[in-house]
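Appendix B. Raw example, untouched.
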Amino acid sequence: MSECNMKTRRGFLKSLIIGGVAALVPSAGFAGSVVNQRRKPNVVMIVCDDLNDYVSGMTGHPQARTPHIARLAQSGVAFKRAYSNNPICAPSRSSFLTGIYPHISKNLFWDKWHNNPVLKNSKTIMEHFGDNGYHVAGSGKLMHHHLASVWSEFKHKADYGPFVYDGENRVAHPSVPQPFGSIGHVDGSFAPLSDPPYGPDAKGNKGWIYGTWGKVIKYNYVDEDNRDPTPDERNAAWAEKKINEFAKSKGDKPFFLGVGFIRPHTPLHVPKRFFDMFPVDSVRIPVIKPDDADDCHYEDVYDSGVKGLKYFRLLKESYPDLDSALKAFTQAYLASVAAVDECIGRVVEAVNKSQFKNNTVIVVTSDHGWNMGEKDYLFKNSLWEESTRVPLIIRAPGVAVPGGIAEHPVSLIDIYPTLIDLCGLEGVTRKSKKGARLDGHSLRPFLKDPKSETWNGPNAALTMIYAGKGTGNDPTKQHWSVRTRRWRYILYNNGSEELYDHDTDPYEWINLCGDTRYGNVKADLKTQLFRMTDR
C-alpha cells in the first residue's frame, strides 16, 4: 500500500454525526425586500438530470441554446463554479435534498436514502418546509427513490420516456448504429420524436411509449403539432397550472414547488425542432486532446467495462470516425438541453406572470454533469470537471444581485441551508439524535455580493465517487476530489493523484501531480480534502 493511501485511511471520520451547520440559525428572510414581509417567500426548485455546463454563459459549449436559463440568470445570481458532491443520480439527490454529505450519511451510491439510518432520521428539505407551514408540492424526478410521504402532494413520478418499444421489449432506437445501440433503451438511444421507430404501419403498442415501468402506455405522435406531451412538458404544464391555482387561492400559506425534469438524461428523445437547431454537420464537437487519458488514473481503479469507458468505446466503434460519433451524440445532447430549457422557461414565466414574482425564490440546477468524450469517457460519475460541474442559478428578489456572477467554488450541499436562510425557516433539521446536522453553508453572501470574500463555507468544493461493491459503505475506500478557484485535486483510493491548474489548463489536459514544482500546492489541497472529510 502506498504511503499516500496509508494516510488516506488514517484517522478518517471520527464521528459520522458531526457536520458544519451555520445554516440552522433562522434569519430575517427577505430583509430589505419590497415584498410583503407578513408572508414567507415561496420557493420554486427546478432540478434537471445529467445537465452539464452546456448552458448559455457557462462556456461549456459555444452552440448551447438555453435562452430561458440565461434570462433567469439575468434576474438572479449564476454560480460559475458550482459542483455536485457525488456525480451520479441517487446519492447526489439524497445528499443535497437532505443537506448531508454522502460520506457523513454513508449513503454513497444506489441504496435507498429512506432506508439509511442517518437520512431517515433527518428532515428532507421538503419536510422542513412542510414543518414551517409551507404547502409542499412536487412532480417529476426530485429524489431518485421517491417517497410520497415527504410531500403535501405529488403529481407525476419520474418518467424517462419516450422509449422505443418493439412489441416485446424496450430497445434503443433502430437508427442508432451498433454496437452503441446494444447498450439498451436508456443510455444507448437518441433520436428525434419525428423519426417513428417502426414506421406509420406499426401495430399495437410498437413504437414510442411512455417511460412508466411495469406497463406499456402508448406515446402518440402524428407530427410536431399533433402529439402527446413529453414527460418534461407534462411536468412543466403541471407546475404552471399549480402556480395559477396558488394565485387563485384565498389562503396565505406559502408554497414550496419542486419540479424535476429528466432531460438531458438519456434516452435523448426530444421533438425534431430541437434537433433542427443543431444541424449535425455543423455541430462542434467537444475539445478533446488525443491520448488525454494517458496521465489519468481512472482506468487504474476501474476496469474497462465501467460505463463511461465502455460507452465511449462503443460510440467510437459505431461510426466511421470519432468526429462523426461525437457529432451525432452531441447533437442529441444539445437538442435535449434546449428542450428542457423551454420547459424551465414555462415554469419561470408562470411565476413572472403571477403576483408571486417578487416574493418567490427560484433555484435551477442539476444533480451532476456529463463527460462528452473527454479522457475517453462518455458518462457521469467521474471526478473531472465535465462530470462534476453543474449550473446553479438562484433568483431571490430583494436579496440577489440581478445578473450577478459568483466565481467562488460552491456545491449542491449549500442549497438547503441557503433556502433556510432566505425563507427564515425555524427548527432543527434532525428528527432524532440518529440524524445529522446540515453540512453546507448559506450562499446569501454571494447573492448579495457575488464577489464576496466573507463566506463561512470552505474554499473548495468536495466531490466523491463510489469505488465499487467491494468497498461497501466505507468512505475511506472511495475516490475524492476538491475544486478551488484555480485547482482541481483528485485522490483515488489506491493513492494515485491528479492535479490540474485551471488558470492555464481549463480542459484538465495536464496532470501536474508528478511535477515537483507543485508539491506544496498538492500538499495544501490534500490537507483541505482531509479537513473537509474530517480525516
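End of appendix B.
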